Amino acid sequence: MLNGCFTESLCEEIDLSENNISPSGMRAVNEFSISSSLNEVPTNLLLEILVFANKFCCERLKDACDRKLASQVSTREDAVELMEYALEENTPILAASCLQVFLRDLPDCLNDDRVVEIFLQANRQQRSIMVGSASFSLYSLLSEVAMHLDPRSDKAACFLEQLIEYAETDRQRLIALHQLGCVRFWRKEYEEAKHLFEAALNAGHVYSVAALARIGYSKGHKLWAYEKLSSVISTVAPLGWMHQERSLYCEGEKCWEDLEKATELDPTLTYPYMYRAASLMRSQNTQDALAEINRILRMFEGRVAASQLRTLVREHVDNWTAADCWLQLYDRWSSVDDIGSLSVIYQMLESDAAKGVLYFRQSLLLLRLNCPEAAMRSLQLARQHASSEHERLVYEGWILYDTGHCEEGLQKAEESIKIKRSFEAFFLKAYALADSSQDPSCSSTVVSLLEDALKCPSDRLRKGQALNNLGSVYVDCGKLDLAADCYINALKIRHTRAHQGLARVHFLRNDKTAAYDEMTKLIDKARNNASAYEKRSEYCDRELTKADLEMVTRLDPLRVYPYRYRAAVLMDSLKEKEAIAELSRAIAFKADLHLLHLRAAFHDHVGDVLGALRDCRAALSVEPNHQEMLELHSRINSHEPLI
């Protein structure tokens, strides 16, 4: 413009005052044209230059301003101010930087009307600048957070209205319709909610029928609600939630039957257990009511906060002295009552007892209950409350071991032993060494370490575990007589789980009947005996095995081995459809890798390539690098027969 064929090139003076840029801004532009740098240019001047660069199509200058401004966004105030420029001047890097600040500030930033206004007033082009093609994902997140803050709020409704608009697929649209229907329902806008749920249901979102039934029930149409759910149950493959919902609209035996069916189809639904427990309690059937509560606690798998867990169990635990607590803990631990043991430890932690040891015991129980994250928190608390340096080193060693740093955990055990020879330090060293060494000769060292542990002071709970572990080492070495002695000695101090090890010894001596009888003793003594039934099933004929595994499923429906076994038996009997149905029964509530792998193989066997591919892809979503699944997926894709 200044030196080419434009009119301004012939002028002595050029008036740039109408371009909204100051002399300082022009000097910075001039400097950039020479050095390609915007160093030490203040924010207000950068904004001037950005507008100027955009107006005169100076792309390199605009990009430099975009990046420089993006690096300066640090607070919500910065983001609110600069997002306006980003959307107006089409600077995606600055817009993304502002958006990142908003997202990091969730959910608090949604209480700021300025931030909400930015999201609600953005047009299609501005959304593209801000988030590219991910509008649905962004507004799905925003609507979820808004509903969590207040599901009846205007902002939740507005975000969901936009979510429907931004849906790109039928699936996205039906989910958005259902969610907006929920918000309208909570706001008691029943007619609008009804239309949204009907639209979602017609688009294929079956769960919306539950909402329609509840709207009908709120208007006094209880029979209509029952029949609406019945029509869905009779036309599609029924799921647990369908029967749970239908139970709300009937009474007596019908209600009980629906809840039993709900538990059968999806044992992770908690309402049926709670309903049955309350009903049994009202009829003075206390033991069965508590049994239902115990089943709920298994389903939670550690997802209950300690305060909630205490609320559920404290009324069944008396206040004891410290000595009473240790006796009660020993009794519950010996009877394989992990929930009961946890409740005793929780009560002990409220007293002045040594907390390091108690948190450590708590972590062991949580691991048994398949709650690794909660167990790790307890281990960290054990470390924090350790009463001595050598005790702290042991807990640090377990933390390292449980996070995959076996060698470092071993070193911590050795450091602890140098300070003081203790049971827990030797036990940790033996455990870590057995896991880290591939050398068969190390078993003698592990035996020696466990023997050293047993010579140190400790209570019978831990010594029983050491004897049990020692027996396992002897079994692996083929020294069955020594193993049997260890298990028998463990049983003498009421380490009940040693029955399982002794059963293994009997089995390896080709005495299957004795093995079965030994597991029966464990079943009789153990409060939580689902795993014992599962193990006993290995030591009997097919009919008894089937009965044991049915009992496992009744006691703990989340254990997957029984489903796999029953499916394999059905497949051997050429009942392919029934075998696939058995696996599907478990997969409906637990996306287990082994179940998906097996069902993919079964689908492939009967020629259902699409079903096999679906299960392979689902499994690889759970574990992307699972070698067997990758090979199976490759074979199915290439239509090679499975052997």
TrEMBL record:
Gene3D superfamilies: Potassium Channel Kv1.1, Chain A, Tetratricopeptide repeat domain. GO terms for biological process: negative regulation of ethylene-activated signaling pathway. TPR repeats lie at residues 464-497. Residues 509-536 form a coiled coil. It comes from the Eukaryota. Keywords: Coiled coil, TPR repeat. Pathway: Protein modification; protein ubiquitination. This is ETO1-like protein 1. InterPro entries: ETO1-like, SKP1/BTB/POZ_sf, TPR-like_helical_dom_sf, TPR_rpt.
